[in-house]
Write a structure and sequence with these properties.
Blueprint: H1 2-26, H2 44-55, H3 70-83, H4 85-90, E1 92-96, E2 99-104, E3 114-119, E4 142-143, E5 146-148, H5 156-171, E6 180-185, H6 193-204, E7 209-220, E8 230-238, E9 240-249, E10 253-254, H7 263-276, H8 285-295, H9 300-307, H10 309-321, H11 324-330, E11 333-340, E12 347-348, E13 351-360, H12 366-377, E14 382-390, H13 401-414, E15 417-424, H14 430-433, E16 437-448, E17 462-464, H15 465-484
Parallel strand pairs: 3-6, 3-7, 7-16, 8-15
Antiparallel strand pairs: 1-2, 2-6, 4-5, 5-17, 9-13, 9-14, 10-12, 11-13
The structure holds zinc ion.
């Protein structure tokens, strides 16, 4: 009897393993579809100098609007007009405050237009960190085959890259069939009021875009474990944001005779409960498509796991949740940020509060997260107060023309690139533009390495010259293909 049982267990395990192996073998990278096409012959040196020049305008978005320097913004706008005269004469320009909306009229007005967009404002340099920079942040220096300074990645390379690309097409007598809009925001870093006005303007004119392309992820290498190819996560969605205030209540009194649970202890218990029960982050929908695709390019061990999610789902979930960036891609994150207790060292607080900042995955809503927190915290001594927020965006189609054009343009310029639909962890102006677009994508066609990440809003922001030029070539192809059919 025992022997029979043992034998049948071995047979079952053997069968499971065979299935898992076959699935792993089938879960492998497809033949690379390298798109051989002629790419634009860009004057890299001139373009590089132009990006460097654009960085010298201190178009800083300060949290305190009093510090806004109209001179710098006007300077940038005049510089753009002088540097890109063909761009400016081929298009109609509408200014909304300091945000610029350009319209490049297509020959077929029956086709829905497309929109390419970026922002030319930048975040300030943290006072006191200037000396850590290898090159001055607003000097626009080119050294070691890199262009240095605030905005080199976020997002003057995008704005200047688009003007370079369109200028190249104009000089080569290109005429768009489908109307192309360019919108360059002036205050993305503080909410994007300019982009909101542009969106309103388009709406009033009855414009509904076929698709829009804004800043977002970059072509990258070395971000996904075990993948040694270029990966392009083309963001089809953007996370939302919300704050909740957790208020723990107690009697208070003198700190010399504390009860077992003070308001602070009650608050701490609530926070630990939330840590132990995060919002679900299972691989489904967009996350599943993204990791299914990327994992095909991983070594056997990873492929074995991803190809057999029916068997290893739990293990994979906990593995992915342990890396902050990947965790942020697959779930709504929970981050306690601001704490408050007593006002004096010997006074027990009557209330202790924690502000929790959530970044919403499209599968969750402000309401569902609030409900989750109330259920998990579940105590009469704790109150959960909603402080408002912004829902996650809708999810754009990765089967649609815009997505296909972006990914095929990338492979023409970069060769083999693994394009996958991604999710934007930070916010972009597309939260406004997407209101007038059938599909919205958030992606910069420049390539970066993991060590470049500290440059975003941090120190030593810089872009490799080759990467900038490759991005311009990609924009040329995107505009060409996007406006031709
Ligand atoms: Zn940006």
């Amino acid at each position: 009897m025992l022997k029979k049982l043992l034998l049948s267990s071995i047979v079952i395990i053997g069968a499971l393993l065979s299935i898992a192996f076959i699935r792993t073998l089938m879960h492998s990278a497809p033949e690379p579809t390298v798109n051989v096409g002629i790419t634009a012959d860009i004057d890299g040196e001139a373009a590089t100098n132009n990006l460097a020049a654009s960085i010298r305008f201190k178009t800083i978005s300060h949290q305190d609007k009093e510090n806004f320097s109209s001179q710098e913004f006007e300077g940038f706008i005049k510089w753009a007009a002088d540097t890109y005269p063909e761009f400016h004469s081929a298009m109609q320009l509408e200014m909304l405050e300091y945000s610029l909306l350009f319209k490049w009229e297509g020959s077929d007005s029956s086709l829905a237009p497309i929109l390419l967009t970026g922002h030319y404002d930048v975040v300030p340099v943290i006072p006191g960190t200037e000396s850590i920079w290898k090159e001055e942040p607003f000097a626009g220096v080119i050294s070691n085959n890199r262009i240095w300074g605030r905005g080199a990645l976020d997002d003057k390379s995008g704005v200047v890259g688009m003007m370079e690309a369109a200028t190249y097409l104009i000089k080569n007598n290109f005429q768009p069939t489908r109307t192309v809009y360019f919108s360059f925001g002036h205050d993305e870093e503080i909410g994007g009021g300019g982009a909101a006005q542009v969106t309103e303007k388009l709406k009033q004119e009855g414009v509904q875009l076929q698709w829009s392309l804004d800043e977002g992820s970059f072509v990258n290498k070395g971000f996904f474990p075990g993948v040694d190819k270029l990966v392009a996560p083309i963001n089809v969605a953007e996370k939302g944001i919300m704050n909740l205030l957790i208020v723990a209540k107690a009697k208070g009194g003198h700190s010399s005779t504390p009860p077992k649970k003070t308001a602070v202890n009650i608050l701490a218990d609530a926070l630990i409960k939330l840590e132990n029960e995060p919002l679900p982050g299972t691989l489904e929908g967009l996350s599943a498509v993204m990791f299914d695709e990327v994992s095909k390019h991983m070594p056997f061990g990873y492929r074995f796991l991803f190809a057999n999610r029916w068997l290893f789902g739990g293990l994979l979930d906990s593995q992915m949740s342990s890396t902050p960036v990947i965790n942020a891609m697959i779930r709504t994150t929970t981050a306690p940020t601001m704490l408050n207790g007593s006002v004096k060292s010997n006074v027990l607080p009557i209330e202790a509060t924690a502000l929790i900042n959530f970044r919403l995955h499209p599968r969750d809503s402000i309401e569902s997260v609030t409900e989750h927190v109330r259920r998990v915290v579940g105590s009469d001594l704790v109150e959960v107060q909603a402080l408002g927020g912004m829902e996650a965006s809708g999810v754009s189609s990765w089967e649609s023309p815009g997505y296909k054009i972006i990914s095929s343009s990338l492979s023409k310029v970069y060769g083999e690139v693994v394009s996958v639909p991604g999710i934007m962890i930070a916010a972009s102006d597309t939260r406004h533009y997407s209101k007038v677009a059938d599909n919205s994508f958030r992606f910069n066609p420049f390539s970066i390495l993991p060590e470049d990440m500290t440059g975003f809003h941090g120190t030593n922001e810089s872009i490799a010259v080759d990467s900038f030029v490759a991005g311009i070539k990609t924009y040329v192809d995107i505009i060409n293909e996007g406006s031709s059919n």
